[in-house]
Amino acid sequence: MLRFINDALYSFREVFSRFSTWILFSMVILGFIGAPEMIGVTSFCRFWGLGESFYNSLCNFFRSTAWSLEALVCLWTTFVLAQNKTVMIQGRAVILGDHTYTPKDGRRMPGVVALHQDSESQSKPSFFRGHFWGAICLVVGSMAAPFGLPLDLKIHQGFVHIGKDQSAKDNHETLGTRIVHMALEFAVRHNLPCVLVLDAFFSNRSGLQSGRFHLVY
After folding, report:
1. Domain boundaries along the sequence of the chain
2. What are the tens digits of pLDDT across the range 2-41?
3. pTM listed for this prediction
4. Under a CB-based contact definition with an 8 Å cutoff, are residues 161 and 129 in contact?
5. What does the alpha-carbon distance between residue 152 and residue 130 come to, in Å, rounded to a whole number?
6. Could you write out the DSSP letters of every residue in 135-158?
7. C-beta of residue 109 within 8 angstroms of C-beta of residue 162
8. Coil, strand or helix: which one is 57?
């Protein structure tokens, strides 16, 4: 297992223009794997026994220009497909897509917006502030024991808060089409026929017209 993790991390070396940045990336990934709790960068510092100066270094890593998130995601999806564990149905890979909410208490945290959820659970508030994510994953393993392996995760609301103004009149993307576009980008990038499985929220005209895709609701 340790050899596999080492080889996997080294395969991402080409994404980073500086060796030190790749080392920080490896520390973050191993922190995600080994940290007993997840409360941000603090968890990584506790896991590695690092001081305050390293906390700032880890924070700077996420803003570094020595790597690109788009290139990292592209290499990640290539790495996933190279494992040859993809579940295929009639020659098509199976992609799952959906939205998820993450409540946040930070008043000035980028991308945090007011959200409403329709859960019937009385333990959850109807309105809260948090991040609105869109996610796609690839079904791997086998049909007898399938597993959804995350491919991409993006904030789908609050673009103005993160410096990406989406208010232009020529922008016709909706919450329903953004998930479909994420899946299309993956399928086109790897020239891989796919089946996209979504829930009833996405069964609208804009979603159906957003690309040549086999959609399953």
Report:
1. 2-61, 69-216
2. 899 999 999 999 999 999 999 999 999 999 999 888 888 8
3. 0.79
4. no
5. 19
6. EEEEEEE-SSSEEEEEEEEEE-S-
7. no
8. helix
